[in-house]
Amino acid sequence: MQSIKTVGVVGTGVIGASWTALFLSRGLRVLVSDPAPGAKDRLFAYLQDSWPMLKQLGLHSDASISNCTFVGESLGDHCSEVDFIQEV
């Protein structure tokens, strides 16, 4: 069975940002894409705002917002780096 270590998330709206936060809280590396203007800034603001609550719920020992990389408009060039893709 393959172990999932890196997840790709397509879209950073409320649902995509929530999936990103969940994956990060479980200690995964997350590559995120979204073509919307300002998507990166909104995503990282959401992560900063939600992180204290995730800490209260309990984080994996490898959990960190720094495990998130915004790759731009498309995940296409990074598909070989991910074990799972969550499209929202």
Can you walk me through this structure?
The protein is α/β, with parallel strands linked by helices. The chain has one domain (6-87): Rossmann fold, CATH 3.40.50. It has helices at residues 14-25, 39-57; strands spanning 6-10, 29-33, 68-72, 84-87. Strands 3-2-1-4 form a four-stranded parallel β-sheet, with helices on one face. Helix 1 (14-25) crosses helix 2 (39-57). The chain starts with 5 loop residues before the first strand and ends with a strand. The model has no long low-confidence stretch (mean pLDDT 96).
Short description:
This protein is of the alpha/beta class and 88 residues long. The chain has helices at 14-25, 39-57, and strands at 6-10, 29-33, 68-72, 84-87. α2 (39-57) links the parallel β2 (29-33) and β3.
